[in-house]
Design goal:
Largest sheet: 4 strands, antiparallel
Low-confidence stretches: 1-23
CATH architecture of the largest domain: Orthogonal Bundle
CATH class of the largest domain: Mainly Alpha
Distance between the termini: 40 Å
Mean pLDDT: 87
Number of domains: 2
CATH topology of the largest domain: Triger factor/SurA peptide-binding fold
Structural class: alpha+beta
């Protein structure tokens, strides 16, 4: 049994509990991006198929796919969602989609309106995204069945949602400098950090019950990947290679790991990291029956973070936490009296 499964397989924390997610995909498709329906895999896709009903309003497969691509924008690079992550992404996207619709319905219940000047500016801004009338008309046909009225309704809906969330969440989630300093002073342990390494990996995994021949082939693959990795110049170059050749879950994140405490790093890997500089690529390293190649992106020594070093980021995190709490409470409140059906 492997001692470092987190390092090798890296179960991806996608933060799909969307009580903490932000609504952004209610905006119309922007110029320069394929719509989700255009960039989805080639399997049959019915954009108008109902996937949910919220108080009688139908939500479609195209709406859901757009939310999925908001959660996992790498999908366009991968020609769809990774199969192993698809159920979690769909669940998170459905929660986002339902929340967005509940918010919109609440704006209608409160008889909120959009000032004509705001509509005119939003329509003007949307039109500026396109280089030609043909590009605009292509999106109009693809996303709105050629109907300017549907586009206008979509923009108005987006503005109403934004206004409501600003009123109910954004305007209530600010934190003062005094709040930030008080948190820092009351929680000293939070600001002690152990030594960490931030890395990217390419890992070659053997098949179950691998034979000696298969293990030898794995070593050869690893050595070939290591030679290719040594030729990369940037983190992005390494990440693109990881997407192509790595077997671990981090391949869909360009091999990128969050900062890792030294106690979570296998000793074989740590030994090489200790003599590497930022930007260096390791030799092929064997951990149990797995071969891995590591790129060092950052190395942070243990210590205590000073207030001036963390106050800006801490304020952002405290505000985000407050935003998440307000959003979760709003989601729960809107769902209490709603009739929601998912198909």
């Amino acid at each position: 049994m492997m001692k470092y499964p987190v390092f090798i397989f890296g179960v991806l924390a996608l933060c799909l509990v969307t009580a903490e997610a932000q609504v952004s995909s209610h905006l119309p498709t922007a110029h320069g991006q394929q719509s989700p329906a255009q960039s989805a895999p080639s399997q049959p896709f019915a954009p108008d198929k109902a996937v949910a009903r919220v108080n009688g309003s139908v939500l479609t497969a195209a709406d859901l796919l757009r939310e999925e691509y908001t959660i996992f924008p790498y999908a366009r690079q991968h020609n769809g969602l990774p199969k192993e992550l698809e159920p979690q992404i769909r669940e998170g996207a459905m929660k986002m989609l339902v929340f967005e619709e509940l918010v919109y319905q609440e704006t209608l219940r409160r008889k909120m309106t959009v000032p004509p000047s705001s509509m005119q500016q939003a329509e003007k801004d949307f039109g500026k995204q396109f280089h030609s009338p043909d590009e605009f008309n292509a999106v109009l046909q693809q996303e709105f069945h050629g109907s300017p009225r549907l586009l206008e309704d979509k923009i108005r809906r987006s503005l109403l949602i934004d206004a409501f969330l600003r009123q109910e969440i954004e305007n209530r989630s600010s934190v003062s400098p005094a709040d930030v300093q008080a948190f820092y002073q009351k929680n000293p342990a939070v600001f002690h950090h152990s030594e960490t390494f931030t890395i990217q990996t390419i890992s070659i995994l053997p098949p179950p019950n691998a034979s000696a021949t298969q293990l030898k082939e794995g070593r050869a693959r690893a050595d070939q990947a290591q030679r290719q990795a040594r030729l990369t110049k940037t983190s992005e170059d390494f990440g693109l290679l990881a997407e192509k050749v790595s077997d671990d879950d981090y391949r869909v994140m360009m091999g990128q790991h969050k900062p890792m405490p030294v106690e979570q790093i296998p000793p074989q890997v740590l030994k090489q990291l200790r003599v590497m500089k930022v930007g260096d690529v390791s030799d092929s390293i064997q951990v149990d029956q797995i071969w891995t190649i590591v790129r060092l992106d950052a190395h942070n020594a243990a210590g205590e973070a000073k207030f001036d070093e963390v106050k800006t980021q801490l304020a952002k995190e405290m505000q985000q936490n407050k935003t998440n709490q307000l959003r979760a409470a709003l989601d729960q409140r809107l769902r209490q009296s709603a009739k929601i059906e998912e198909f």
